[in-house]
Amino acid sequence: MTAAWLALPDLASRRLGGGVIDTNDELFAAADNLVTPEPPGFTPRTFGPKGQVYDGWETRRRRSPGEDWAIVRLGAAGRVRGVVVDTSHFTGNFPPEASVLGCRLDGHPGPDALAEADWVPLVPRSPLAGDTANPFDVSADGIVTHVKLVIHPDGGVARLRVHGEVVPDPIRFPDGWLDLAAVDNGGRVVGCSDLFYGSPNQLIEPGLARTMGEGWETRRRRDAGNDWVVVRLAAPGRIRLAELDTSHFKGNAPGAATLRGVDDRKADPADESAWRELLPHTPLRPDTRHRFELRTDPVTHVRLDIHPDGGMARLRLHGHLDDGILDQLRASWSPVPPSG
């Protein structure tokens, strides 16, 4: 799969708070597995009371007309750009076809409200291949909070990935103060020098890293350079507090770090001279949550340079949205949901 939208966050991931709200059948394997962030696993000839154990969602063999379905609450609402229906390890028991619908319901709707929702097609009824990550482009442009995976007529799906652009609900930050880098607010990694041991996307995921493996770590440098990552912020904003967290990185934390920023409304980020210093070259300690008070002009992108290499658990950039941005978000979340 080479679709550009695969680089966008998985809005359905359990890491962002995604979850399965309802399903009509999960006799062989629980629908909750659909949103597990890790790749699906499989151990042959591992049997439980209901048969072979699958890391996915599997329904019974249908003996009547109809189809099976599961409804997923997205962890982060947004505009869906692509969907992956992953049938990994399902070979003789995958659905021959699937479709995906989306809706927007504010608040915390339950199964009854979702059953009455105005569902919009995201992926039409389409053929699936077994033991395959099946990608589908999505052209609908409205904000989506929930998706409904329908399999025709039955079978097993390992994972459902819903890639898109986060559109944060401004009810979460009524005064415009938020973590501008956080993926669940719309932040996104757009550049990185090295991701040998860990993805830089983990830097901006929710919560604290539980292990070193949940952060970003580069290989050992043997030259005079340094490693870096660029984050496009959720929205233009003024950063007031930066947190550079090296938790769990003890013998491999960076020796120092710098932060620079640019406002792409005024300058081209590709122009190296357009970047302005936000945090000067500052020593870092191993296994420490460092916090630095900043006073920046509005920026849209931030570059974290670590010197010379090593690992970081999290990057937090707390601040205020620039003038007018909060009103724009409120307009996006107007009371009448956009049609797909």
Automatic annotation (TrEMBL):
Q: Its Enzyme Commission number?
A: 3.5.3.4
PANTHER family the UniProt entry points to: ALLANTOICASE, INACTIVE ALLANTOICASE-RELATED
Q: What is this protein called?
A: Probable allantoicase
Q: What is the lineage of its organism?
A: Bacteria, Bacillati, Actinomycetota, Actinomycetes, Micromonosporales
Which pathway does it serve? Nitrogen metabolism; (S)-allantoin degradation; (S)-ureidoglycolate from allantoate (aminidohydrolase route): step 1/1
Source organism's superkingdom? Bacteria
Q: Which reaction does it catalyse?
A: allantoate + H2O = (S)-ureidoglycolate + urea
Query: Which GO MF terms does the UniProt record name?
Result: allantoicase activity
Keyword annotations of the record: Hydrolase, Purine metabolism
Domain (Allantoicase) spans 17-166, 186-320
Record-level GO BP terms: allantoin catabolic process; purine nucleobase metabolic process
Q: Which organism is it from?
A: Asanoa hainanensis
Among InterPro entries, the record links this protein to:
Allantoicase, Allantoicase_dom, Galactose-bd-like_sf
User: What family is this?
Assistant: Belongs to the allantoicase family.
NCBIfam families according to UniProt? allantoicase
The record's listing under Pfam families reads: Allantoicase
